[in-house]
């Protein structure tokens, strides 16, 4: 009797021992089998050739898997052909989500910020190989304006080691805009125009 094996992969094979009747040829060495034959996926093997293609383990009493005409033990089949989840690093033996050039268990494809599981009708944004929902991406990933503190989703001005909404990068005293490359000064980390800073502007 073949061993009972959990069918977690579609490549799982049941094998059988067959007594000699018609002449059978070993698929590994192409020689006739004169004793008991091992059978897997309509192919026959000498008992000593019924082994894992990677580690050489005897497959008569353990789970058997096949790929491209070769037999594998459970461990080597998974190592060579079964993807690992990008979050838990465990093998994915059933449903699989492909995203960001990685594989995920469906329950592990979650927002990196709030851990909400993504569904087929949800969008995500990627940052540093992590998926984010729109809310968390806006709240935690996007740069914050040096003026109002809100996330910057459009064009920004880089100044005073911060990023600013264009509408927020104005003199902190008179609210004059600095568009057109107008000079500005810094007071306590905030932009201020020349007149408000007490400096004379050149024509």
* Global Rg: 33 Å
State the end-to-end distance: 98 Å
Structural class: mainly beta
Instruction: Name the assembly state.
Output: single chain
User: How confident overall, as mean pLDDT?
Assistant: 82
How much strand content do the residues show?
Answer: 25-35%
Order of helices and strands: EEEEEEEEHEEEEHEEEEH
Tell me roughly what share of residues is in helical segments. under 10%
Number of DSSP helical runs: 3
Principal-axes geometry comes out as: rod-shaped
Query: What are the segments in which pLDDT stays under 50 over at least 5 consecutive residues?
Result: 1-18
Mind describing the biggest β-sheet?
A: 3 strands, antiparallel
Number of strands: 16
Strand order of the largest sheet: 1-7-8
Write the layout of secondary structure elements.
Blueprint (H helix, E strand, L loop, with lengths): L11 E2 L1 E4 L5 E2 L6 E2 L3 E4 L2 E4 L17 E4 L2 E3 L1 H8 L15 E3 L2 E3 L20 E3 L2 E3 L1 H8 L14 E4 L2 E4 L19 E3 L2 E3 L1 H4 L6
Antiparallel strand pairs: 1-7, 2-5, 3-4, 5-6, 7-8, 9-10, 11-12, 13-14, 15-16
Q: What keywords describe this structure?
A:
about 200 residues, mainly beta, 3-stranded antiparallel β-sheet, about 10% helix, disordered N terminus
